[in-house]
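Notes to self, Protein N-acetyltransferase, RimJ/RimL family:
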Amino acid sequence: MSLELTTDRLRIREWELDDAEAALEIYGAAEVAHWLTPEWQPVNDAGAMRSVLHAWIEAGPNLIPPAGRWAIVRKDDGALVGGLSLKLLPPYEEDFELTWALRPDVWGQGYATEASRAAIGWAFEQGIDEVFAVARPNNRRAVGVARRLGMEWVGETEKYYDMRLQVFRLRPV
Ligand SMILES: CC(C)(COP(=O)(O)OP(=O)(O)OC[C@H]1O[C@@H](n2cnc3c(N)ncnc32)[C@H](O)[C@@H]1OP(=O)(O)O)[C@@H](O)C(=O)NCCC(=O)NCCS
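result:
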């Protein structure tokens, strides 16, 4: 779903094919790829990243709103620092999952939390009444983002990706 949001430090916008080189620094980084869902195919060069972006851009209009995949850009220098997505969790496709990926050199500055707050606020305005996040139990940083967002721990499950995951949920206050 088409989106353009701004926060104090960030801009959340649609992906563009020309983001490939910068996106590779995020999704091509081993520290990031390691934590992505099992369906993620590693990307090793800008050409492969461009193909992934092309697929994301093409798929966008067909997703069930407010699902989407967006780029996170730092306002002060225009650098692409991360990606954010809202997608339906498999296999039942009823629950919207928020996912984050940041370029490793910008971890620890609160960008994932700041971008997520804006995206979640927007998603609630679109009419959904809960957002989930799932994290492997040892993904300390992802669990940290969920906690900072005020998400409630719902439990542990293997129902989504055939792997043990911690489940967090946020509902509008
Ligand atoms: C998950 C991920 C996005 C978290 O990144 P992060 O930088 O740790 O998270 P935030 O952007 O919320 O930053 C929080 C950190 O910034 C600090 N921080 C600094 N300024 C801050 C601010 N203004 N607001 C919030 N936190 C701030 C926090 O204290 C925290 O510090 P810590 O490093 O001591 O934990 C990142 O580790 C990543 O890309 N991981 C790989 C992909 C992944 O695991 N995705 C999740 C599964 S989909």
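- The chain has five helices and eight strands.
- The helical segments are 20-27, 30-33, 46-59, 111-125, 140-148.
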